[in-house]
Amino acid sequence: MQQKYRGEWILFLVSIIAASGWFFSKFAMAEFPPIGFMGARFALGFCIFLPFAYSQLKQLSNTQIRQACLVGICYAVYISLWTLGLIHSQHLGEGAFLVSLSMLIAPLVSWLFFKDKPQKIFWISLPIAMLGLTLLAFGRGQLYFSLGSLIFLFSSITAAIYFVLNNHFAQNIPVVSLTTLQVGVVGICCSLYSYFFESYPATFSPSIWWWFLASLLIATNGRMLLQTLGQKHCQVSTAALIMVLEPVWTCLLSILIFNEPMTWLKGMGCFCILMALLIYRLPRLRR
């Protein structure tokens, strides 16, 4: 049974790591320029992966390299928008649920790109999840989207495209080499942007480097390797809905760390999203 659902279990762990990454990055960007932080984080991640992926990279065809780089560009756009949203947002729990829209529309993107129709049960669970997100939007008593929230919404579109392409190309590209190329492309894109448009402080406090290392080793290298491995053994619709758990963990951590207020509307929103996930998974669990 554990072997059968290996991909689901891996992605469940990835959702927790992804939630932790919100806070690693938030603390690190207290001093780092945001896009430059991501550029350094992913560039070093590429250097760590490269020795392990070198033998696989030499065997890739030009088509496989182009596919992996395309996925990396999508991820670079997503991570840049997510970073800017993180800087401008004061409510990480709310932002995480807005970003989770990408996980809800990923099966639809897969249908559009690769004719992979969502299961019928998805159309039942989707409105419930959307109701949960609507309740979260009203969590402060009014339907309001700040600048950070709007950026998060735009990032959700690119995240959905990245998720679907990554799931599709992971089927015929070795996991380590695909992950390495993705990380390298993000590092190059973000570093170039930061070089031309951002400025750096003269010095950094020692504690910042610990948050930087946590972001690099856990939230970047560890997460991307596990996510690619998990998606290789999991259907895109199932993987997308498992990753909906990420905003739940982010919201809980935000309450514990930042004392983010949790109204009953926000609580109901989290409950609806969890119910949507359970409704979607129930038919498969029965089989």
TrEMBL record:
InterPro entries according to UniProt: Diverse_Substrate_Transporter, EamA_dom, EmrE-like
Q: Does the keyword Transcription apply?
A: no
Could you name the Gene Ontology cellular component terms for this entry? Answer: plasma membrane
Q: Which UniProt keywords apply?
A: Cell membrane, Membrane, Transmembrane, Transmembrane helix
**Domain (EamA): residue spans on this chain:** 7-137, 147-279
**Does the keyword NAD belong to this entry?**
no
* Membrane topology summary: Multi-pass membrane protein
The transmembrane segments are 9-29, 35-57, 69-89, 95-114, 121-138, 144-165, 172-196, 208-226, 238-258, 264-282
Q: What are the subcellular locations of this protein?
A: Cell membrane
Gene3D superfamilies for the chain:
1.10.3730.20
Q: Predominant location of this chain?
A: membrane
Report the protein name in the record.
Putative DMT superfamily transporter inner membrane protein
Species of origin reads: [Actinobacillus] rossii
